[in-house]
Design goal:
Elements lengths: L11 H4 L3 E4 L20 E5 L5 E4 L2 E2 L47 E2 L4 H6 L1 H6 L4 E4 L3 E3 L7 E7 L20 H21 L3 E4 L24 H12 L5 H13 L4
Helix pairs in contact: 5-6
Protein name: Alpha-amylase
Keywords: Glycosidase, Hydrolase
InterPro entries: GH (IPR017853), GH13_cat_dom (IPR006047)
Length: 260
């Protein structure tokens, strides 16, 4: 389903624009304080045989940060290339005996963020650009951000994380406070771009979301009730012999007692 305004017309400013496309994570690291924002959340994951979530680790290509709580996950620096995960497949491993890939895709992060783009606005202006086309910057699990976690908020690795314990990534994110703080980062950036006469075009992916999202919540991370989270509870009850109707009623009652 594609929804659009049939009377929409391209704005006049776009007709003569010089557009510069930016993949935020690979552009410039303006705030190292957000590089470990998802240390505890990790990258997607899987449910183990014991029924608990096993999170994949993030690979950091930022050369490490001060007092790094994840030094063992630093795979390289800004100028290093991530290894192709296919090197770990059985058919390719003989050709890459020294491969150390974790066989996971899109979990390599270099630390580029919105502050980094704002820091370079004068440079971008100097080369003659009049508009910036941003790859998705909404909260998402992957480095490319085409698998939205939350459409309404800036990703904390691009914005400003707020932890449950001040300054400690290992304490996990305070989601509500992180959303508010990160949104302020984007608002300040948008204002700075406008003041320099630079338009912003934000890429959005609205025909699907990620499994690691508030809408689906396969890994049961978020305060919101995701579709997977709901139906998993329903079918767990059905598998004990209850009817689907009774199972749904019980699950709804359980959720009604929880502040969402």
């Amino acid at each position: 389903l594609t929804v659009y305004d049939k009377d929409y017309k391209n704005p006049d400013w776009m007709k003569d624009s010089v557009v510069y496309q930016i993949f935020p994570d690979r552009f410039f690291d303006g705030n190292k304080d957000n590089n470990r924002a998802k240390l505890l959340d990790g990258y997607r994951g899987y449910i183990g045989t014991d029924g608990t979530l096993k999170r994949y680790e993030i690979q950091y290509y930022d050369g490490g940060v001060e007092n790094d709580p994840a030094s063992s996950q630093v795979w390289g620096s800004w100028r290093d290339y991530p290894e192709n995960p296919r090197h770990a497949t059985p058919e390719n491993k003989p050709y890459y005996p020294n491969s150390k890939t974790d066989n996971i895709w899109t979990n390599e992060f270099y630390g580029g963020d919105i502050q980094g783009i704002e820091d370079k606005l004068d440079y971008l202006k100097s080369i003659g650009i009049t508009a910036i086309y941003l790859n998705p910057v909404a909260w998402a699990a992957s480095n490319h951000k085409y698998d939205a976690t939350d459409y309404k908020s800036l990703d904390p690795m691009s914005g400003q994380p707020v932890y449950n314990k001040d300054g400690d990534p290992n304490s996990g994110l305070n989601y509500e406070a992180t959303r508010a703080a990160s949104d302020r980062v984007y608002q300040a950036f948008a204002k700075a771009a406008e003041e320099k006469g630079i338009k912003l075009i934000a890429d959005g992916v609205f025909n699907h979301v990620g499994d690691d999202s508030i809408y689906f919540d396969r890994y049961e991370k978020y305060p919101e009730i995701g579709a997977y989270e709901y139906w998993k509870k329903v079918w767990d009850k059905v598998n004990t012999g209850k009817s689907q109707e009774k199972a749904e009623k019980e699950v709804i009652k359980e959720y009604e007692s929880i502040k969402n």
